[in-house]
Amino acid sequence: MTTIDLASAPDPLTVDLTDPGTFVRDDLHEMWARFRAERPVHRHPETPGRPPFWVVTRYADAMSVYKDNKNFTSERGNVLATLLAGGDSAAGKMLAVTDGARHRAIRNMMLKSFSPRALQHVVAGVRKRTSDLIGQVVAKDSFDYAREVAEHIPMGTICDLMAIPPQDRPQLLAWNKKTLSSEAENDSLDDQVMARNEILLYFSDLARHRRRNLGDDVLSTLVTAEIDGERLSEEEIIFNCYSLILGGDESSRVSSISTVLAFIQHPEQWRRFKAGEVSTNVATEEVLRWATPAMHFGRRALVDVEVGGERIAAGDIVTLWNTSANFDESVFPDPFTYDLARTPNKHLTFGYGPHFCLGAFLGREELKALLDELRENVATMELVGTPERIRSNFLYGYRNLPVSFGAA
Ligand code: HEM
């Protein structure tokens, strides 16, 4: 049983959850445990130029809001950055920030491209890419796992799905890294906005080109699909491309990095996994719970509503902290122990309800491919430098991972 020390955790009343710096500290589990125990639904005070917001930290409360698209909306933003700025320019057009009938129609259309059947050949590509990359790095003395492995798999996969020309991929990756989850300390808000605009412009051009050169990729589906006899608008196409390239890359990339780091930090779990004591499917869920790359999502209340005994007023911002809910001691026994054999393991890493992650199947397949490849071809993993955390109030993980692998 792993216990944590609440006494040394920061007082929830003093924590600034808008500050990316808050999330590079090492006692986040203690911090969230104290929130859950003392202020499970906490009203975060306003910060300069930004309104107050609710912080939901227990599993059951977060689930209840995720499920409830009658009393809560995603159309005024679904992450702190946009919620606090007063809205998202993609509202009503991009899946994640669209509600109601339009959301269902676009989602059903896109789901066809993301079903296990439709993705069969893509999954084969993921396995091949993973195997090639791991094959290359085991031959090296040391390498940066983030740069040489993690950043090529999800990005390569989502680019394959959208048939993005190979020569454009490095630039897209560089823009992705500057958007939601500013990786470096010196990236400014302007850098983020500029990167987002570059991605939108890129897809505007690519969509125009694709209309004249249709294939069986997701972008071709977006430019030709009809809902109630009408094509999607230009903005709907471009914003959904943006969401796929970002959603498809970031969270999967950092979970891949977290997977390797967790094995290094928990050698007994690596031994169990390597010895075949835990199946890949079961292990994948604990890897996802432990990594929880998307720390929060959020909503606006449409009406006065109660959450966890607190009265939320219509118009209030409500943030749901997966990174806390996934370690809620009332749902996960011994939550601070990394236990690859944990079952059941109904984490909220992919959210829940109407906006449940569209790419969950793909995200899982990418991790399963990695786990199988590590088990098969790697004997030892060792840290040879200090990994640095991503500075973000949204994305949890590391931007580099200097390691050395020994071949099996
Ligand atoms: C939605 C997490 C991988 C595309 C979501 C949501 C979460 C999430 C928590 C819910 C957002 C909300 O409720 O507001 C993750 C994690 C991933 C991952 C942790 C990897 C480990 C992917 C991939 C893709 C993707 C690979 C695309 C290929 C999307 C899209 C939505 C979404 C389009 C919006 C769905 C909707 O609003 O109906 N994701 N995601 N995600 N994700 Fe993912």
TrEMBL record:
**Record-linked PANTHER family:** BIOTIN BIOSYNTHESIS CYTOCHROME P450, P450, PUTATIVE (EUROFUNG)-RELATED
Give the protein name, as stated in the record. Cytochrome P450
As one GO molecular function, the record gives: heme binding
Origin: domain of life: Bacteria
A Pfam family name for this chain? p450
List, alphabetically, the InterPro entries matched.
Answer: Cyt_P450, Cyt_P450_B, Cyt_P450_CS, Cyt_P450_sf
User: Does this entry carry the keyword Hydrolase?
Assistant: no
Key word Translocase present:
no
Q: Which UniProt keywords apply?
A: Heme, Iron, Metal-binding, Monooxygenase, Oxidoreductase
Q: What Gene Ontology terms for biological process does this UniProt record contain?
A: cholesterol catabolic process
Give the protein family: Belongs to the cytochrome P450 family.
